[in-house]
Design a protein that fits this description.
Order of helices and strands of chain A: EEHEEEHEEHHHEHHHHHHE
Low-confidence stretches of chain A: none
Mean pLDDT of chain A: 91
Strand order of the largest sheet of chain B: 1-3-2-4-5
Shape of chain A: elongated
CATH class of chain B: Alpha Beta
Order of helices and strands of chain B: EHEHEHEEH
Strand content of chain B: 25-35%
Number of strands of chain B: 5
Number of domains of chain A: 2
Strand content of chain A: 15-25%
Helix content of chain B: 25-40%
Oligomer: heterodimer
Helix content of chain A: 40-55%
Largest sheet of chain A: 5 strands, antiparallel
Low-confidence stretches of chain B: none
Largest interface: A-B, 16 and 14 residues
Structural class of chain A: alpha+beta
Structural class of chain B: alpha/beta
Number of domains of chain B: 1
Radius of gyration of chain A: 29 Å
Mean pLDDT of chain B: 93
Number of helices of chain B: 4
CATH topology of chain B: Glutaredoxin
CATH superfamily of chain B: Glutaredoxin
Shape of chain B: globular
Number of strands of chain A: 9
């Protein structure tokens, strides 16, 4: 069994991310219904089941062999979606209702074409329900209603991503305020020092402003530590608790850059890995959650 | 299917069946409109391979393909370039070309 990485600090109770109030940051957008229907259909199509059908219906995938003096219609085993008009709108429409196995004549642009229907496959779209939500594998899509919310917001991705830039730090703050922690003083000091070390203050900034930035960021390490604890809890829930091998893989990136393994270990203790990687990935996940939450402001 | 090209995979993606290559950049408004049409096509027509090339992230791919403006769309069948269009194509214009080049 792989060795789990742990912190001395503890998460005693995690706040509920769905209870954080984002109403003031949620834009109110009116979706175009036709676009919404299309986005929903595209989403459901990823999980569609394709079955044999007895006769050709609109949008079925049809395979035919056709014979004609026109070389475009003299070919075997050609497949197309009936009614879209990519192969021939006239021919496709003429074949609607034909059963599998039928051979018959149609007229296309005044020319006779002999067509044999070889196969008809029909897509069956699933219902956007809780069962689909469970199997779709998308972060934060838990119910059928979440699927509809996700699709309703798809046409506003750019606007919502801008709003999410503000919303996800607010979401993180809301979760942390609703959580309970027991923080170890040495880990807090390490996290704060790391934040200070990683601050990139432009060289041309005046000393007073630079000092103000450093002071305001002095306790940001505590936030990072709390995100790491929440991130570890999330990973443990999914059965993927950060392990020693993950840390060793992280270190190998530095040895690839010319550091010896011992140098990398001295420069990057496991605590830094947990803060940067686990905490960082948790914040990335919150961005997706914020996006999904903001889509609740999109109406039809 | 939609694939995102990089320096390592572009050559392989370009040659795989019927391909629409979409050269775009992050700041291009019409590129975003085109992206929605291509998403619809990818969902409805699984035999169409869509290869998206971000010329901001991979400028050498833009330069190697002589891309002067975005969006630029190339229609490719089994590695053979059929048509190259500079500017936005709407859904009907895209599907018309799919029909023309895929079915001959």
């Amino acid at each position: 069994m792989s060795e789990k990485l742990t912190l001395k600090s503890k998460l005693l109770r995690a706040g509920d991310p769905w209870s954080v109030d984002l109403s003031e940051l949620t834009p109110h957008l009116q979706a175009d219904e036709a676009r919404y229907r299309r986005d929903l259909e595209n989403f459901l199509r990823r999980f569609a089941v394709t079955e044999d059908a007895g006769k050709i219906g609109a949008h079925d995938t049809v395979t035919v062999t056709c014979r004609s003096e026109n070389p475009r219609f003299n070919r075997e085993h050609v497949s197309f979606r009936a009614g879209l008009g990519l192969f021939s709108k006239e021919l496709e429409n003429a074949l609607l209702g034909w059963p599998v196995g039928k051979t018959g004549e149609v007229t296309v642009k005044g020319q006779s074409v002999t067509v044999t229907v070889e196969a008809v496959r029909r897509e069956r779209l699933p219902e956007p329900d809780d069962a689909l939500a469970a199997r779709c594998g998308l972060a934060y899509i838990r119910t059928g209603a979440d699927i509809l919310t996700y699709c309703r917001g798809k046409q506003f991705e750019e606007e919502l991503e801008e709003a999410a830039d503000e919303a996800y730090p607010a979401l993180a703050g809301g979760i942390i305020n609703a959580s309970e922690f027991e923080l170890d003083a040495t880990e807090v000091a390490f996290a704060n020092a790391l934040t200070q070390k990683n601050l990139h203050i432009p060289e041309d900034l005046d000393e007073e402003t630079a000092r103000a930035i450093r002071e305001s960021m002095a306790n940001a390490g505590t936030f990072s530590l709390q995100c790491a604890l929440l991130g570890m809890a999330d990973l443990e829930r999914c059965g993927k608790a950060p392990a020693r091998e993950d840390y060793e893989t992280y270190l190998s990136r530095f040895t690839d850059r010319g550091q010896t393994p011992d140098e990398a270990r001295q420069a990057h203790p496991a605590l830094e890995y947990l803060l940067n990687e686990v905490g960082g990935n948790y914040m990335d996940g919150l961005e997706l959650l914020a996006l999904q939450r903001l889509k609740e402001g999109v109406t039809l | 299917m939609i694939n995102y090209a990089n320096y390592d995979n572009y050559d392989q993606l370009y040659r795989d069946g019927f391909v629409i290559v979409d050269f775009f950049s992050d700041s291009c408004g019409p590129c975003k409109v085109l992206a929605r049409y291509l998403e619809d096509i990818a969902a409805e027509l699984p035999f169409v391979n869509i290869v998206k090339v971000n010329t901001s992230a991979y400028p050498r791919l833009g330069a190697d393909n002589h891309i002067d403006a975005v969006p630029t769309v190339m229609f490719v069948m089994n590695g053979e370039l059929k048509e190259r269009v500079v500017g936005l194509l709407d859904y009907d214009e895209l599907t018309e070309r799919i029909g023309q080049y895929y079915y001959g």
